[in-house]
């Protein structure tokens, strides 16, 4: 039976492969050590690829790994380094929450995600403006590949 | 945050200094969390503490039940703050803490208030949080609001409700199903994501109603879906409907194909890819249907976006497994991908090319792969090596360039698994292609000159000892082998000594020189090496220890004809006494192994990893066992041995299974008996067979088992004659007869007097499948096309009701006893149709190929269309008879 496409996890690792922020949506990695082992294998496999400018993709066992920096880059004003990421960890957690809900893709547009996560207290309603279809089209591509993971 | 950091401009070396979470500790953060209880909430401070809590959880730290409850209760106090940023963090931490049902009560009213807030962001998030933590009874209370939310004018709120519905469907399906009308409205939404989420939910709600899904697909394919994501879903659902309809025997024009084809012209790339993939996965897709899909995939191969190239090459790689010819048009684009920066893409391209390439392109391909091998990981290299091995078997004429390639990569750096894959491939090629033997052996010799893996060195030395002496110039290998005696560890030295001895024995002219070399080895520092050298010298010298050439030959080349396990047990039981250990007392039958062990064995690689040493089960083992019994040698060549069939229940006093050995005009039943009672010794164990229901068979002879001690398996044989070359069938009833002698467990001695007894065994049948040998073909399509279409026999069968398609497929495979090809034995879960490809050789050495198409309808009735091609049309008809009578 066709289930809705599901994302298994979303990882943000630093330049040494250490965990900055991660979120798992499937039971494939039940323990923390299993998760860390998986992160390590993803890191070794992908460290040579450069996803800064273009979405990259890697096949890992039966999973497909998609590298993308879009939303994070927008959040951190194009300044993705570990310090910046940790200083804004709250925003990163929020953006994870806006991208995926329990494994189901919630939002695909990097601008909308960054907008919703980067919300500040004085302007509660502004970032929730309705996204346009063309925006969604622009960044939906990488999520296609995510959806291939099933 | 906790430690305000001064940003240093000059150095980035001191990474630790930069982390705002350095030295963070659970206890301290939990202390800090008390700030939530302050009467005056400081939103900034509280947000920071929540971030720290989330950070701890995220790093794998866990809170105890008490800690989590405490944090949860204080967090709920933060609802009094109007700060939206803080509220977002509160939502997050509640979801992470996953409170228990009695705790949930505390926040439900706050969340329900937020659910009806004027602020969209509150509404959307409160729905998601609430749906994550509540149970069924609470759900009924808020159901009304959720239905409203689905049709909310704000798409974010609407999506939040729909996605929550998808999650809730797993736990409370009956409630969510009541929302169909609202969800249906969502499909018409102007927002792309709402449309996507609504379609996913509506389909999930209706998934068990085939007709409803078909209607949904039917109406939507007429074009009201704007969201590309939703369109992708629709394509998947359409494929499902197509499969269902095919299973219900609706023939003629394939429904919805036009829709899929039109999606190939969609403006969103993801839709194009999804449609192309759906078309390539259609059951029994024709080349006319495939062509447009292949064409768009080919265009994506040269896309600047890695994701698109990857998706396209991955799909084409799969198509190449079943329809290699359809993909050949893409070969040029595919070849340019070999140098793709993305290694996943490059590897998929190569393995595709190795499948689709024709004989003339092999050399060019090898040249390109050589450049690419040096910078990919071992696991990819193994994939390539394995593809090359099968290519070599497919195009034996090209062995030279393939062998050169393998020997080149053998010299490069690499791990054990990779090296073993290469060595295995070379060994396979040497075995399959006689012309490749000499060069292959030399490559292996060069490899062991500088090989760091003891296992591979010893295996290669063993292989050299068997193959080397039969070459045109055996002397050239001696140097490589003798070098091992100087340079390697004791294990390898011992293996080298054995190999030298084999050369010395087989090649008369080398004998004197080998004797000199072996004499040097008797001063080795390792006793195993010395022992072997001394032993072999005595064999070669013919100093009377062994009498004949035959005995020496058996000694050097014969494999141990008893299973190692049994040998080990017997040796352990042997107590030093006047009487020497007699190897003939070791039982030859392998005890049925526990399942786990069997599985582990199944994984053993072919090639070197599967040495021909001493199996007494498996075809070679049976052949050897039977030929060791003089009465059976006149029967000719063994055609087939069946798997053991159990004739007793598990856990009975005597365990008996039977193996059916088929010869041209004889059938030998091998009864493997085990006595499971420690207090008994069985003697004169025989099986009385009643063949009154097997008219074409007549008993010729039987061979009883003299003695069957406790837990030490033995075999009895009964032989039947049958008309030559005829697949005669019949049913046999069996009775085990024997003499029981009591054994005193303390001394192990049996009493002199025994009692005759018998034991009823289950019946045994010889079926048509016993006359079929599983022989695979490397390319089913080619093999199929090579057989005359005139001789094809087609028929349809109703297989009745079955639990699953897999069960029916397995029954047919078992009935025919044929080899499944191209992975068609695996059936996707819940599949409603399946095509299984089978190949085999029928008695009389007639090649047979079968294409069995299965379909299942809603009442689980299974129909099968069976197409058979054979070298002899009468055999094709015989196969149908087997199925018809099975």
From TrEMBL, chain A:
<keyword id="KW-0653">Protein transport</keyword>
<comment type="function">
    <text>The zeta subunit may be involved in regulating the coat assembly and, hence, the rate of biosynthetic protein transport due to its association-dissociation properties with the coatomer complex.</text>
</comment>
<keyword id="KW-0813">Transport</keyword>
<keyword id="KW-0963">Cytoplasm</keyword>
<keyword id="KW-0333">Golgi apparatus</keyword>
<dbReference type="GO" id="GO:0030126">
    <property type="term" value="C:COPI vesicle coat"/>
</dbReference>
<dbReference type="GO" id="GO:0006886">
    <property type="term" value="P:intracellular protein transport"/>
</dbReference>
<keyword id="KW-0931">ER-Golgi transport</keyword>
<dbReference type="InterPro" id="IPR039652">
    <property type="entry name" value="Coatomer_zeta"/>
</dbReference>
<dbReference type="GO" id="GO:0000139">
    <property type="term" value="C:Golgi membrane"/>
</dbReference>
<keyword id="KW-0472">Membrane</keyword>
<keyword id="KW-0968">Cytoplasmic vesicle</keyword>
<protein>
    <recommendedName>
        <fullName>Coatomer subunit zeta</fullName>
    </recommendedName>
</protein>
<comment type="subunit">
    <text>Oligomeric complex that consists of at least the alpha, beta, beta', gamma, delta, epsilon and zeta subunits.</text>
</comment>
<dbReference type="GO" id="GO:0006891">
    <property type="term" value="P:intra-Golgi vesicle-mediated transport"/>
</dbReference>
<dbReference type="InterPro" id="IPR011012">
    <property type="entry name" value="Longin-like_dom_sf"/>
</dbReference>
<comment type="similarity">
    <text>Belongs to the adaptor complexes small subunit family.</text>
</comment>
<dbReference type="GO" id="GO:0006890">
    <property type="term" value="P:retrograde vesicle-mediated transport, Golgi to endoplasmic reticulum"/>
</dbReference>
UniProtKB/TrEMBL annotation, chain B:
<dbReference type="GO" id="GO:0006891">
    <property type="term" value="P:intra-Golgi vesicle-mediated transport"/>
</dbReference>
<dbReference type="InterPro" id="IPR013040">
    <property type="entry name" value="Coatomer_gsu_app_Ig-like_dom"/>
</dbReference>
<dbReference type="GO" id="GO:0006886">
    <property type="term" value="P:intracellular protein transport"/>
</dbReference>
<feature type="domain" description="Coatomer subunit gamma C-terminal">
    <location>
        <begin position="769"/>
        <end position="883"/>
    </location>
</feature>
<dbReference type="InterPro" id="IPR002553">
    <property type="entry name" value="Clathrin/coatomer_adapt-like_N"/>
</dbReference>
<dbReference type="GO" id="GO:0005198">
    <property type="term" value="F:structural molecule activity"/>
</dbReference>
<keyword id="KW-0677">Repeat</keyword>
<keyword id="KW-0813">Transport</keyword>
<comment type="similarity">
    <text>Belongs to the COPG family.</text>
</comment>
<keyword id="KW-0653">Protein transport</keyword>
<comment type="function">
    <text>The coatomer is a cytosolic protein complex that binds to dilysine motifs and reversibly associates with Golgi non-clathrin-coated vesicles, which further mediate biosynthetic protein transport from the ER, via the Golgi up to the trans Golgi network. Coatomer complex is required for budding from Golgi membranes, and is essential for the retrograde Golgi-to-ER transport of dilysine-tagged proteins.</text>
</comment>
<feature type="domain" description="Coatomer gamma subunit appendage Ig-like subdomain">
    <location>
        <begin position="622"/>
        <end position="766"/>
    </location>
</feature>
<protein>
    <recommendedName>
        <fullName>Coatomer subunit gamma</fullName>
    </recommendedName>
</protein>
<dbReference type="GO" id="GO:0005793">
    <property type="term" value="C:endoplasmic reticulum-Golgi intermediate compartment"/>
</dbReference>
<dbReference type="Pfam" id="PF08752">
    <property type="entry name" value="COP-gamma_platf"/>
</dbReference>
<keyword id="KW-0472">Membrane</keyword>
<dbReference type="GO" id="GO:0005783">
    <property type="term" value="C:endoplasmic reticulum"/>
</dbReference>
<dbReference type="Pfam" id="PF16381">
    <property type="entry name" value="Coatomer_g_Cpla"/>
</dbReference>
<dbReference type="GO" id="GO:0030126">
    <property type="term" value="C:COPI vesicle coat"/>
</dbReference>
<keyword id="KW-0931">ER-Golgi transport</keyword>
<dbReference type="Pfam" id="PF01602">
    <property type="entry name" value="Adaptin_N"/>
</dbReference>
<feature type="region of interest" description="Disordered">
    <location>
        <begin position="592"/>
        <end position="614"/>
    </location>
</feature>
